[in-house]
Amino acid sequence: MKKIDYTSPKISKKAQELMDRDKRVLFGAHTRTREIPLVVDYAKGARVTDIEGKTYLDFGAGFAVVGTGHCHPDVIDAVNKQIKKLIHISGSDFYYEPQIELAEKLIKITPGKFNKRVYFGSSGAEAVEATLKIARHFTRRPRMISFIGAFHGRTFAGMTMSGSKKIQRARFSSLIPEVYHIPFPYCYRCIFDKTYPECTKKDFDGMPLPHCLSYLTDVVFERLIDPEDVSLILVEPIQGEGGYIVPPQEFLPALRKIADKYGIVLAFDEIQCGLGRTGKWFACDHVNTAPDIILIAKAIASGFPMSATVGKAELMDPEVNAMAWRPGAHGSTFGGNPVIAAAGVASLDIIENGLIENAAKVGDFLKQRMMEIMNRHKIIGEVRGMGLMIGIELVQDKGTKEPFPQCVTTNGKNIKEVITGECFKQGLILYGAGTSSLRISPPLVITQDDATGALRIIEEVITDVEKQLS
Ligand SMILES: Cc1ncc(COP(=O)(O)O)c(C=O)c1O
Predict the structure, then answer these.
(1) Contacts by 213-220, CB closer than 8 A, 24 or more apart
(2) How much distance in Å is there from the Cα of 151 to the middle of ligand 1?
(3) Which atom of ligand 1 is nearest to the CA of 236?
(4) 120 near 99, Cβ under 8 Å?
(5) What does the alpha-carbon distance between residue 427 and residue 54 come to, in Å, rounded to a whole number?
(6) Cβ 277 under 6 angstroms from ligand 1
(7) Predicted confidence (pLDDT) per residue in 76-101, tens digit
(8) Cβ-based neighbour number of residue 378 at 10 Å
(9) Does residue 110's CB lie within 6 angstroms of at least one atom of ligand 1?
(10) 389 by DSSP, 3-state: which?
C-alpha cells in the first residue's frame, strides 16, 4: 500500500487566533483534530457556517444531538417563552409544569406498557450513573454486565461500563468493581469467527441465542458469577461510538429473556440511537423489546443539556415497591431545568411531527446509495445501520476484511482522518466511529437533496483516496 501525501485543511488567520486562545485555556483531553478545524459562527437546520462565512453540510449533528436541526424556530420560541417566566428553582424540591409535561411525554413514547417514572439529569453519563444506582438499590446485587465496544460516557460509572477505547479508561483505576464485559454482536468482525444467522442455532428457554450471548449464559454465568448476583445488564441497542454496529434481531429479545429469568434489570442506552434517529422512536422498537430502564439524552432538548432515565415505576418509586430508591437517595440541582424541559417538549413535538418518517425515508435512501458506492469501491467493507444512523466500515481488503494500519499518510494520519478531512475541505462535516468506521448521523431534518450532495462528496473523496493508495 502506497502512503498518501496528505495535507490537513487550511486554517484562516482569524480561526487560528481563536484556536490558539482556546488552546491556552481549555483542557487538553479534547479529541479535536486538525482534520476538522471548524470554528463555528452560527448554524441553522443541517448547515453550519464558520467565522469566515463558509457553510458546511452537517452530517454529524453535534454527535447526534441536534435531531431537530440547528436552532429550530419552535425550540427557540419555547425557550424564549419559558425564559421570561422561570429559569431555575430546582426540580428536586419544587414543582413546575415543563418538567412534568416532558416526563409525561417521555412515558408515552418509550416502549413498555407499564407504569414508569422519570429522572432528569444534565448529561448522558448522569443517566448511566442513575441507572447503576437504581439497579443496585432495587436488587441489592453487586455485579453488572456490559459489552465490548460499548460507550456510556466519561464519569466513573460511564467509564467503567464502557469498553470502546482503552485511552478512555487508562490511568483512571480503580473503576467500579464487579463489571463483566462480554462480546457485542459485531458480526462483520465476529470474535468467535461465526457467521450469522447460522450462529443462532442454540436457544435460551426457547429464544434463539446468538452465539456471542452463549458466552454470557455458558461461560460467565456458569464459571465466573452467579446470575443471581447480577443487578444490571446495560446495552446500546445499536452501538454508537463503537462503530454504529447493529446487532442481529435476536439479540435484544434474548437479553430480555435472560434478564427476566434471573431477575436482572435490563437497561437500554438509547442516548445516541434513540428519539427517532433510526426511523422509529427507539432502536429497540424495531424488535419490539422493552427494557426495564431506557436512557435518553443527546437529542432530547435539541442541544440544551439534558438526560432522562425512564424506568419501571417499581424500580424508581418506593411507594410502588419498597426496594426502590428512597427520597434523598438521588437527585440533581439542574436536572429537569424548566427552560431545558420546555425545549425538550418542543423537540419531541417536532420529532413526532414528521422527523421520524423523514429519518426512515432519507435514511433508507442514504443506506441504499452508500451500498451502491460500496459495490463500486474496494475500501468499503460494509455499510450498516438504520434510519439516519449509518456506519461505513473501511477495509484494506474486502476479501480478508483487513483493516487499515494506524497510519496511511506520510504525516501519520489514519484512514478516518484522511476521509473526514477531505470531506471537510469539500464542505461536509463527517465523523469517524469505532476503530475503522465512518458514521453518518445528520440532523433528522436532512433532505434527500442534501443526502445526494453528501454522497457525491463522500464518493469523490473515496475515489481519490483509493487512487492515492494504489
Ligand atoms: C450511547 C451513549 N451513552 C452515553 C453517552 C454519554 O453521554 P454524555 O456525553 O452526554 O455524558 C454517549 C455519548 O456519546 C453515548 O453515545
Answers:
(1) 213/182, 213/185, 213/251, 213/254, 213/255, 213/258, 215/182, 215/183, 216/145, 216/182, 216/258, 217/258, 220/145, 220/180, 220/182
(2) 7
(3) 1
(4) yes
(5) 8
(6) no
(7) 999 999 999 999 999 999 999 999 99
(8) 15
(9) no
(10) strand
Q: Is the CB of residue 163 below 6 angstroms from any atom belonging to ligand 1?
A: no
* Nearest 10 degrees: Cα torsion 37, 43, 47, 49: -50
Q: How many angstroms separate the CA atoms of 250 and 287, rounded?
A: 8
Measured distance CA(384)–CA(392) in Å, rounded: 7
The pTM of the whole model exceeds 0.90: yes
- Residue 440, all three cell numbers: 453518518
For residue 297, how far is its CA from the centre of ligand 1 (angstroms)? Answer: 8
Tell me the C-alpha distance between 162 and 91, whole Å. Answer: 29
pLDDT of residue 32: 82
CB of 269 sitting under 6 A from ligand 1: yes
- Tell me, rounded to whole angstroms, the distance of Cα 466 from its chain centroid: 29
Rounded Cα–Cα distance for residues 69 and 59 (Å): 11
C-alpha cell at 394: 473501511
Centre a 10 Å sphere on the Cβ of residue 301 and count the other Cβ atoms it contains. 29
Which mutation among 131, 151, 164, 165 tests ligand 1's pocket best, with the greatest number of atoms within 8 A of CB?
A: 151
pLDDT tens digits for 14-72?
999 999 999 999 999 998 877 899 999 999 999 999 999 999 999 999 999 999 999 99
269 CA to centre of ligand 1 in angstroms: 9
What gap in Å lies between CA 286 and CA 292, rounded to an integer? 17
| Other Cβ atoms closer than 10 A to 468 | 15
In contact, 244 and 389? CB cutoff 8 Å: yes
Instruction: Give all domains of the chain, ordered by start, each with its CATH number.
Output: 13-72+357-469 (3.90.1150.10), 73-350 (3.40.640.10)
pLDDT of residue 310: 99
* Rounded distance between C-alpha atoms, residue 265 and residue 274, angstroms: 19
Q: How far is the CA of 218 from the centre of ligand 1 (A)?
A: 30
3-class DSSP assignment, residue 131: helix
Measured in whole angstroms, the distance separating CA 121 from the mean position of its chain's CA atoms is 17
State how far Cα 41 lies from the chain centre.
Answer: 26
